[in-house]
């Protein structure tokens, strides 16, 4: 009897060992490849998180933390730029990926030190320096029982960068962040400071939100906040074809749903055929003592994510691990501030030879599954390593000039791993253009802070107001003081004299 038990026990142990051997070995391999050897930025050069834009600059200036001092410093810098005919670009956390914070040979203002903040407890309005990161703001608001209304899915971004790209996140059934901006102060190219809101300088207000730093330097911003709350976490596995119906049932018809994201499987077998709908439902208000904790299981989450870079088995492993353990990882209940306080370092590349590149396409909701089918057709034809597809919804944007959402959209956020080389970047261009064309054909748009691979014609189809936007830019900044790679690539190009003559 005893011996039979011993045999059974040993056999189960061996079987369990055999089952765990492959995933264990895979995770160890992923951890070994996680080299943490990113080179330090070369002195006198600027780059962004893509590490594909290293550019020689004339000057890189960290702004002073004190408002009066910063204003004096920035006015001096603008005067110098005008005299020396140098372009000025503005940098927050530099998580845009197409040189949006860089104008070659110019002056770059690093806004990060400018991070003062004050909450009006009665109105819930936060006045904050444009260089502050969400990671600075969330703990501050948490102490007052308040939370950000709309932001990205992670905390590593600056306020100025976030509103200049008009970001959005998991806060469902909301327009992008612009809807939560009440006012801001802007330092213009001529050195004047203006306050912009829906009542004051309304045109400039709409141009600066989503305006990629082309109209001036955002100094401080008034943001509407919301109460911090406690949510329960729910996860619904569905076929991708049934995602919209599941969304209708679990989210649209659920007044308690507060934050939502979807995920599609990326392993080759049954590519994008499965989805999970993840939502956080309101349970009760958070107390002011609701602590913010370090995210649990950080090393395990990173190892599982990195294993999906390795090969298809790793992608399947990650998908299965998320199916089995996500409830354990998130916990039964979690506060809004805790969810939004995740740092992307948890999954961002740290190895010198590689980089992570994001794409994002906004698709009218009724076309959701047709776009999934297009992705299934297009992506496997290209040599890529697609790690992740997340789905969010975003409501119509009523506030910005360069709008990406004229109706409710489902946003497809795609995350690619690739070598950090110009050749690999070039190889991704046809894929990006094909995906952009597919989005445009379905009445969708694409997000602008990533690689500048879309053609100028695609930009103008996605953003029919683009030429008017660039004209307004010249009206407010006739000397083109504020520039970046995005502006230089897409602004209307002068027609060559020979072509102009021939058309007369
Ligand atoms: C890992 C990762 C995850 C992401 N997740 C999301 C997401 O969930 N949702 C989403 O919408 N986006 C997302 N993004 C894109 C990101 O939101 C944008 O890149 C955003 O700009 C990040 O803010 P930043 O501080 O890094 O801006 P930066 O990259 O520093 O700047 C972006 C633009 O804003 C301008 N700018 C910055 N500060 C100022 C200022 N003070 N005055 C005037 N102009 C200024 C810059 O000149 C530039 O044109 C993600 C990016 C990465 C890398």
TrEMBL record:
Keyword Nucleus included in the entry's annotation: no
Keyword Flavoprotein attached: yes
PROSITE patterns xref list: FAD_PCMH
Gene3D superfamilies: 3.30.465.10, FAD-linked oxidases, C-terminal domain (3.40.462.10), Uridine Diphospho-n-acetylenolpyruvylglucosamine Reductase, domain 2 (3.30.43.10)
InterPro entries documented for this protein: Cytok_DH_C_sf (IPR016170), FAD-bd_PCMH (IPR016166), FAD-bd_PCMH-like_sf (IPR036318), FAD-bd_PCMH_sub1 (IPR016167), FAD-bd_PCMH_sub2 (IPR016169), FAD-linked_Oxase-like_C (IPR016164), FAD_lactone_oxidase-like (IPR010031), Oxid_FAD_bind_N (IPR006094)
One GO MF term attached to the UniProt entry: oxidoreductase activity, acting on the CH-OH group of donors, oxygen as acceptor
Keyword terms, alphabetized: FAD, Flavoprotein
Pfam families: FAD_binding_4 (PF01565)
Superkingdom of origin: Bacteria
Protein's name according to its UniProt entry: FAD-binding oxidoreductase
Organism: Hymenobacter busanensis
Lineage of source species: Bacteria, Pseudomonadati, Bacteroidota, Cytophagia, Cytophagales
């Amino acid at each position: 009897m005893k011996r039979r038990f011993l045999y059974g026990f040993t056999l189960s142990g061996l079987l369990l060992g055999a089952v765990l051997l492959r995933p264990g070995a895979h995770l160890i391999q992923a951890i070994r490849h996680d080299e943490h050897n990113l080179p330090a930025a070369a002195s006198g050069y600027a780059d962004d998180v893509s590490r594909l834009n290293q550019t020689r600059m004339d000057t890189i200036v960290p702004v002073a933390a004190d408002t009066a001092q910063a204003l004096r410093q920035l006015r001096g810098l603008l005067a110098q730029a005008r005299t020396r005919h140098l372009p000025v670009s503005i940098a927050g956390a530099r998580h845009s990926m197409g040189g949006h914070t860089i104008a070659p040979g110019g002056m770059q203002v690093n806004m990060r030190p400018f991070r003062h903040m004050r909450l009006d407890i009665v109105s819930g309005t936060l006045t904050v320096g444009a260089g502050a990161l969400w990671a600075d703001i969330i703990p501050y608001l948490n102490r007052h029982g308040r939370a950000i209304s709309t932001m990205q899915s992670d905390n590593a971004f600056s306020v100025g960068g976030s509103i200049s790209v008009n970001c959005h996140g998991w806060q469902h059934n909301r327009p992008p962040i612009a809807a939560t901006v009440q006012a801001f102060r802007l330092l213009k190219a001529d050195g004047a400071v203006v306050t912009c809101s829906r009542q004051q300088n309304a045109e400039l207000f709409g141009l600066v939100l989503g305006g990629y730093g082309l109209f001036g330097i955002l100094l401080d911003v008034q943001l509407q906040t919301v109460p911090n709350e406690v949510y329960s976490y729910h996860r619904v596995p569905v076929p991708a074809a049934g995602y919209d119906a599941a969304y209708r049932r679990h989210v649209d018809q659920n007044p308690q749903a507060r934050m939502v994201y979807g995920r599609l499987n990326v392993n080759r077998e049954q590519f994008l055929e499965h989805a999970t709908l993840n939502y956080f439902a309101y349970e009760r208000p958070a107390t002011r003592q609701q602590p913010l904790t370090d995210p649990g299981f950080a090393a395990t989450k990173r190892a599982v994510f990195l294993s999906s870079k390795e090969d298809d088995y790793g992608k399947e492993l990650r998908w299965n691990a998320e199916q089995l353990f996500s409830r354990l990882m998130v916990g039964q209940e979690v506060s809004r501030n805790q969810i939004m306080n995740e740092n992307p370092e948890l999954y961002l590349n740290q190895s010198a030879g590689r980089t992570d590149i994001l794409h994002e396409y906004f698709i009218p909701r009724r076309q959701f599954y047709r776009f999934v089918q297009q992705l299934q057709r297009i992506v496997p034809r290209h040599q890529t390593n697609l790690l992740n597809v997340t789905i969010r919804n975003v409501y119509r944007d009523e506030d910005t000039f360069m709008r990406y959402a004229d109706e409710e959209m489902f946003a497809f956020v795609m995350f690619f791993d690739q070598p950090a080389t110009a050749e690999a970047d070039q190889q991704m261009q046809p894929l990006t253009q094909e995906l952009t064309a597919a989005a445009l054909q379905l009445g969708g748009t694409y997000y602008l802070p990533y690689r500048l691979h879309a053609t100028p014609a695609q930009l103008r189809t996605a953003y029919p107001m683009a030429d008017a936007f660039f004209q307004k830019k010249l009206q407010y900044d006739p000397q083109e003081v504020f520039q970046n790679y995005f502006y230089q690539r897409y602004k209307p190009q002068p027609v060559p004299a020979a072509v102009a003559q021939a058309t007369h």
